[in-house]
Amino acid sequence: MTIIIALDIGGTQIRAAAFRRGSTTPETVQRTPTRGEGTAFERMCALIQSIWPEHGAVEKIVVALPGPLNPETGVIFSAPNIAGWENFPIGPELEKRFGVPARIGNDANLAALGEWRFGVAQGHHHVLYLTISTGIGGGVISDDRLLLGFRGLAGEVGHVTVLPDGPLCGCGQRGHLETLAAGPAIARYVQEQIKGGATSSLQGKKKITAREVSEAASQGDVLAIQALERAGTYIGQALASYLHLFNPSIVIFGGGVSFSGNLLLGPVKAALEKHVMDKSYLKDLVIANAALGDDAGLMGALALGLLPDKPDN
Ligand code: ADP
Q1: Beta-strand relationship, 250-254 and 286-289
Q2: pLDDT per residue as tens digits for the range 116-128
Q3: Phi, psi at residue 128, to the nearest 5°?
C-alpha cells in the first residue's frame, strides 16, 4: 500500500492529508496555522511528520503553494505573506528531509487539475478555471495537460491588463483584472462611491468586504449590484480573450467571490457575449461553479501526485 501526502499552504493555514493510492478520502488530515513558532517550512515538516503513516510506504509528497513557482525544479519564487520563501527550493528541501520524491504546484493551477480529475470538469479535455477571491488566479488544461509554460508561470489569468493606466495591482503593474474585479476591488469600489456621495445600505460601515457587498446586492442594494456588475463586466471581457486563446469546453468559477452567483455571473456572461469574436466559442460551453470548495488545493495536489512523473504535467 502506498501513500501520497498532499499539502495545501494558505496564507492563514497549512493543511496536510495522507491518501492511500486509489482513494480520494484521506486517511488523516491535519492543519496548523501558517504563522507561529518556527519557520513556515519547519511547521510544514512537523505537520508531515504528524501524518506520516505507521504502515505502508509514502510514495511522494505533493504541495499546493500560493505563489509563482517552477514545478520542474521545485523552487518557489515568492509567497505573499510567508517570510523567507523567496527562491526557496521547497521541493528539494522536502526530498532531503523525508527521503521521498516531492512535487510542487501553484494552488490555482492545481485547483484546475483537481476539478478536472475529481470535480466538475471530469470528462472535459479543455478546461479553464478561475478563482475570484482576495486575488484572481487560475489554471488552464489543454488536451488533458496542465498548461505550465517555460518556467511553470503560465495561467496567471488575474494578471492581464483590462484597463491601461488603471489602478495599481499587487504585482506592481496597472489595470490588471485582479485589481479591478477581485474581492478587495469590489469592496473598494463601494467604499469610494459612498465617499463620493452614493447611497447604500452599507453606508456608515468602517470596513466593507466583498461578502457584505454580495449580501447587500442580494437584498437589492443598487450600489452593491452595480459593484458586482462592474467586476463581472471586467471578468467577462477578459474571459472572451481567454476563450480566444484556449477554446475551453468548460469554464469553472471558484473562490469566495464566486458565491455571489448570478449577481456576478450574469454580467460576466453579458460581457462575454458582447466581446467574443465568434459565437462558436460559446456553443456548448459549460459555465460552472467549482465543486471542490475548500478542498481544491488538497485534491489538486493529489491529482498532481497521481500523474505519471513524465511527461512533465
Ligand atoms: P482567499 O482569498 O483567502 O483564498 P476566499 O476564496 O474566501 O479566500 O476569498 C475571499 C474573498 O471572497 C473576500 O474578498 C471575501 O469578502 C469574498 N467572499 C467570501 N465569501 C463570499 C460570499 N459568500 N459572497 C461573496 N464574496 C465572498
Answers
A1: parallel
A2: 999 999 999 999 9
A3: -120, 125
